[in-house]
Amino acid sequence: MDTISRENNSMLPIGGVIVGVIALAIGGYGAIKASSLQKKVDAQEEKVAKIDGLESQLGSVSATADKSAKDIGSLSRTTQEAFNTVAADLGNIHASLTKLEEAAKKPAAAGKGAHGPVVAGPGEYVIKAGDTFSKIGKANGGFSGAEVASVNPDVNPSKLKVGQKIKLPQKK
């Protein structure tokens, strides 16, 4: 045997064992950390998958919102057009009503109404040119002008109009 190998009682083999144990411990610690990191990566992958799902839902919601905005704009335009049409029709109706009201306010012309001559019914008289309450009363039953005026309180005897109807007193 070699004298070097017998005489060498060095700590080299023990140091090798110690380095091996330390390397094994570090390797074990690394494996544990790697396992822990893998769990964290798996958890993050689930979150990324959820985010991807939310992103696709967000795209769908965005498209729906755009369509709704266009529909609201179209509805707004259609509603405005309808209001404009109704307003024009109301204006025409208002003009027609105004014409009818004006026509109703015009007095009958010289014994003629809007649809022909004015006709006196029972107990009525149609004013002619030159008539007075006194003349009308005497000619229609011998009444006084005051009696004719009493049954026509809303008629001014000084402003009688040709074609105007008045009531006659009833005979006793």
Please give the alpha-carbon distance between the first and last residues. 177 Å
Q: What value does the Rg take, in angstroms? A: 58 Å
Largest sheet: 2 strands, antiparallel
Structural class determined from secondary elements: mainly alpha
Number of domains: 2
Helix content: 55-70%
Number of helices: 4
Shape: rod-shaped
Strand order of the largest sheet: 1-2
What is the average per-residue confidence, as pLDDT, rounded to a whole number? Answer: 85
The counted number of beta strands is 4
Beta-strand percentage?
Answer: 5-15%
Order of helices and strands: HHEEEHHE
As residue ranges, the low-confidence spans are none
Please summarize what this structure is.
The protein contains four helices and four strands; from the N terminus they run ααβββααβ. The chain is mostly helical and 172 residues long. The strands form two sheets. A two-stranded antiparallel sheet has the order 1-2. A two-stranded antiparallel sheet has the order 3-4.
Protein architecture, described:
The protein is mostly helical and 172 residues long. β1 (112-113) and β2 form a beta hairpin. 65% of the residues lie in helices and 6% in strands. The longest helix is centred in the middle third of the chain and has 94 residues, at 12-105. The protein folds into 2 domains: 7-102; 112-167, LysM domain (Membrane-bound Lytic Murein Transglycosylase D, Chain A), CATH 3.10.350.
